[in-house]
Amino acid sequence: MLRNELIEKFYRGECTEEEIQVLLEAFGNPQKGERTVEALWEEFSSTTIAPDRQSEQMFAALQQKIRAREMPRSRHRWPQSQWLRVAAILVLAFSLSLLVSRENTHSLLLSSSVNYITQKNPAGQKSHIRLPDGTQVHLNAESSITYPEVFTDSTRSVCLIGEAFFEVTENPEKPFIVSASGVDTRALGTSFNVKAYAQDFNVNVVLVSGKVSVTQTNMPSKQGKILQPGEEAIVDTKTYEMRKQPAELHRALAWKNNILLFQQATASQIFTELERWYGVKFVHPPLHTAALDSWRFTGEFENASLENVLMSISYVKSFKYTIDHNTITITP
Q: What residue range is the signal peptide (predicted)?
């Protein structure tokens, strides 16, 4: 597995040629490079050293290059994860070739004059963003979006980590594309929700109005899905199998409406969601993990405090908790 320090050095423009070679080998080795660029960036940007503006721009440029890279056809069909690794290698190789003539790797991926903006929400915080074209974005907690200051290309492309709801300004001449965890959602003028947290097993796209197409970023020739209002596309992030089904709009959009919704949720799922929602940390003895995950909980809380949520769930499921600043300890 790649060391965080080396990843940080690359994004800061401090890698030597030898260190970039290590990255090249790691991205090309299935045992070392199992995570996508999005997951690596989320891990890097969540460290105590905050990424600067140039680093954010590098990530956006890297994503754009991966999206634009058309993979050669082959009789042997590689799995999606392998295409991502090859794409990453091509981009890093491009960087290495320029490193010979430039001292600062920040300039390697920022050859374009376009500046990129990244909005990142920590746990416990949501935000509303207006993009340069007028598109409205509701960004969930533990999520980030990267976009250019001006949409100068033939498409309006943004990169998402986490979850966001988009109300896209109509422009038939410039499709709006959201890239998230290897999945592209393309729209002209519509409203939809994309959920693609790095730790999730699926990417979920729910369409509210208009029409969108959902495809795999690095396999554009593979048949995608066209969604109509009220439909949902679910993409497995390991196998990249995609299916379409009727959407539960209330469930999918609950977060945007400040509704905390659980449907047959396990304890682990509940604690993860509460950490994201309120910016806290749950701890419980390892021996109690199996016992906690044996039960399921269904409930709905609108604009509720953490204390009220915990009181309700603990009453139904008979567990105890203590709150110490931002740490909640759970005991059966």
A: none
Q: What is the C-alpha separation between 110 and 259, in angstroms, rounded?
A: 40
DSSP code, position 51: -
CA distance 37 to 311: 39
Q: Residue 185: which residues within 8 A CB-CB, separation 6 or more?
A: 177, 178, 192, 194, 205, 212, 213, 214
Decide if 268 contacts 292 (C-beta within 8 A): yes
Q: Say if residues 67 and 179 touch (Cβ distance below 8 Å).
A: yes
**d(C-alpha 108, C-alpha 229), whole Å:** 42
Q: How far apart are CA 137 and CA 191, in angstroms?
A: 10
Which CA distances in Å does 319 have to 292, 313, 322?
9, 8, 11
Contact 241, 217 (CB under 8 A): no
Q: How many CB atoms lie within 10 A of CB 237?
A: 21
Contacts of 3 (CB under 8 A, 6+ apart): none
- What are the start-end ranges of the H helices in 14-157? 17-28, 37-45, 53-68, 80-99, 106-109
Per-residue pLDDT of 20-55, as tens digits, reads: 666 655 554 444 444 444 555 554 444 434 444 445
Residues 6+ apart with CB under 8 A from 220: 70
Contact call for residues 234 and 255 (beta carbons, < 8 A): no
Question: Which residues, including other chains, have CB under 8 Å from residue 318's CB and lie 6 or more apart?
Answer: 332
The two tokens of residue 264 are: 């047959």
- pTM of the prediction? 0.68
For residue range 153-212, list pLDDT tens digits in order: 899 999 999 999 999 999 989 999 999 998 999 998 899 999 999 888 899 999 999 999
DSSP state of 70: P
Strands 297-302 and 259-265: antiparallel
Report how far residue 112's alpha carbon sits from residue 156's, in angstroms, rounded to the nearest whole number: 16
| Listed residue (192, 175, 180, 187) closest to 231, CA to CA | 192
